[in-house]
Design goal:
The protein is mainly α. It has one domain. 68% of the residues lie in helices and 0% in strands. It has four helices and no strands. The relative contact order is 0.10. The mean pLDDT is 92.
Length: 125
C-alpha cells in the first residue's frame, strides 16, 4: 500500500474527531442519535483494528493449552473453539478443568475491550 495514504487508524480517528467535535453539536433528534451510533461503530472498528490480532493470538495459545495440543500450529481460533465446545459438551473437558474459567473470563474481557470497554470493570473476577 502506498505511503501517501494515512494509516487506517489515523483516518478513523480523524473521522470520529470531526463527527464528535464539529458535526454532532449542530444536530438534534434523529440525526444526532444516528451520528452518535455511527461514531460508536467507528470507535468499535478502531479498537478491533488495534486489538483483535493480539487478542486472537492469546486466545489461540490458551485454547491449545486447554485442549492439550502440542503447539498452536495453524489451527484457526474458530476451529479450536468448536473443539472446546465439543470437549465440554462430551465431558472430555470438565467444567472445573484448570484454566477453563480463566480462559473464558479473559476471552470475555477481550471481547468487551473491543465491543464495549465501559463494561470491562463489570466483568466478575
Amino acid at each position: 500500500m502506498s505511503n501517501r495514504i494515512p494509516p487506517t487508524d489515523v483516518l478513523l480517528h480523524a473521522t470520529i474527531d470531526y463527527l464528535e467535535r464539529e458535526l454532532l453539536p449542530t444536530l438534534a433528534g434523529y440525526h444526532r442519535f444516528q451520528t452518535r451510533v455511527g461514531i460508536n461503530v467507528l470507535k468499535t472498528a478502531m479498537r478491533e483494528l488495534q486489538l483483535a490480532a493480539g487478542f486472537e493470538a492469546e486466545e489461540q495459545a490458551r485454547l491449545t493449552a486447554l485442549l492439550g495440543h502440542a503447539d498452536a500450529g495453524d489451527d484457526p481460533v474458530a476451529a479450536l473453539n468448536d473443539e472446546l465446545t465439543e470437549a465440554i459438551a462430551s465431558g472430555r473437558l470438565p467444567l472445573d478443568a484448570p484454566g477453563l474459567v480463566d480462559h473464558l473470563r479473559r476471552t470475555l474481557a477481550d471481547a468487551l475491550a473491543i465491543d464495549n470497554p465501559k463494561w470491562i470493570g463489570r466483568v466478575p473476577s
